[in-house]
Amino acid sequence: MVSLLRNQKVRNTLLQVLYVGSIAALVLAGIVIARRNLAEQGITSGFNFLFKSTGWDVNFSLLPATANDPYWWYFLIGIINTLFLGSVGLMLATIVGTIVGLARTSSNDLARLLGRTYVDIFRNIPLILQVFFWYAIITHLPTPRGAHEAWGFLLTSRGLYIPFPNVSNAAFAAATLAVVAAIVLPTWLGRTSRLSQPIGQRRAIQFTAAAAALVCAAISLAVGRLPDLPLLDFPALQGLNLRGGLRIPPEFATLAIAIAIYGGSYIAEIVRGGFKSVGKGQVEAALSLGLSPWRVFTLVRLPLALRAMLPILANQYVWLMKATTMGIAVGFTDFFMIVALTINHSGQTLEAIGILMAGFLAINLSLAAVFNRINKAIALKGNQLRG
Amino acid sequence: MEMVVVAPPAPGRLEDLRRRFFATPLQAVLSLACLTIMVFLAWKLLNWAVFSAVFTTSGGPEACQAAAGACWSVIAARWRIIFFGLYPYEEQWRSALACVVVVVMTVLSCIPVFWTGRRIALVWGAGTALFYVLMKGGVLGLAHVGEEAWGGLALTLFIFVTTCLVGFPLAICLALLRRSELPWISRTTGLIIDGVRSLPLISILFTFAVVLPFALPQWLQGDKLYRVILGSALFFSAYQAEIVRGGMQGVPTGQEEAAMALGMRYWQRIGRILLPQAMRNALPATINQFVISFKETSLVIIVGFFEILASGNAAYGTGEWRFAYVEVYAFIAFIYFVFVFSLSRYGAFLERRMSISER
Fold it and tell me: How far apart are CA A350 and CA B279, in angstroms?
């Protein structure tokens, strides 16, 4: 027995079995104890509860939702809410971050100072504090009667009201998809190797594709238009309440603003790092070829910087997607809040936590997969000298 | 023949200004736009925070609400609840002293003299013990104050310090396990680290605060505060482990091979060769992680702790100061800013210094 332990191979196997075994034993013991404790409270484990109706409401949903809907439908709503808030927040944060990041790399001292002040202030204050701050600001806005108004937008304590086309929901979704296609399709057509035209001579094809997508958008808006109403629906005061337009709930607006501002300060630093990594020699070479500063930016600095920042940006996006869980602080029913509410109401603790983990794992993995694809597509081919 | 060297005349002050801000029309527009924004914001902010602000409590909330600017009297009236939470009034000096202990401890650990494993462990161990004794009492004639009465800044700092104290050694262990040569050990550890990293911190805190009691036998449950600290430490260590591992990968393999050739044993190699060099490589990222984790302590408000953000909510939430929410949030933001900004500046300074020494 002792001689067996002296054998390196045996010892290694034993160590591994011990390590994995003890972790597995801990997890299993936890699950067994939890099931027993829950059973004492009259909660049967298993995923049958997914098909029971919830009995409570969500305050934000892109899909139709009533208290009679089953739990699985609510989980779906939660994931879609998280993804929707996340993508709106990501887009806004990217816009803010790009502007601030460019200001920070500008040759103008004042612009640099302004960008730096922004980053220093908003990066150093916790996100949740900013969420609470914006929520307090928005909920203390005037009531609909005294709403701040500008260009048809209304700011009230009940949310932000924006003009919205008078079309059916399905038509609006179709039109949105078509507009996205109008942006994505020409980009793809410009790079793909499936067309016989050489790259660089595809202007006509790209233009046709974009125009066709936009025409599709216009058609779907025209078809889905609600009868006897103007195309754009402006919010207006009727009695004590606001009618018309699209209401963005205070919770959603708060989180989108907070994520945009906080995330923007991080993305600004990533953008700055990306531009800093572009070799001075590359820029000088382009300038000495006689390119204008604008063309140096679009043809040399931007593409190189984009490649440098994309992997870091991907991590930041994943982080921001997870930051939507701040929703629970202000009562926005994101995925995590739905899980927490499920635990409160149904007591199906283990199952709900399992679904939470699986959900975030799926979100993270799919985001990572998308960014890996993009990264591979734009990576420089072969060995190229930098500097 | 005498050569006369004429240097180009040094640009005058006005010429210098013109070159820096008005070199081209576009630059001029940009400069003017930035200047306008800055002057406008600075004026608005100064006017609100200083010129039209009320600083004294003498007029009471009513006079304060009528003022056009900030109402700093809410801070003057409620600073105790923001800093100390529900800590007993007569004992609040202990809470203040405990916060000073943490600040001293942090400053000490920024001095290179203390950058050996033993010394830094001593500083943090002794500091945390002192903090705990001061806050909890029950010995040396200090009255006993239970954890449920802790709050405000002291609770925030306590959670941060204990998170690091537990999380850091755990991170090193996880990093060592992950780079183990035994495939099942490294794979399982990798699974744990990546699993924790893929979850949001709030969900981990929630699991440890609310769900874990179901999965533990009665005698192991402990106080909710310590469970949440454990969760937060686990989260911290999963991120920190990857930073430490990155630092280890930066150490040339020759170093460890040479140590092996000298006949050093595993722990000697780790403790004397690998870790000192790895920690040096990982230092900037480590400080960054400390900064992030300090900001993230504020999330414990979600699972119902009375840390500084929650005590701020309470400071304006009741009765007559209801209107003064901006001032309270600005004050708390300023406290966070002082801590986080100085720590991140220190990190940047260190990074610069190290990049010089590597040249």
Answer: 38
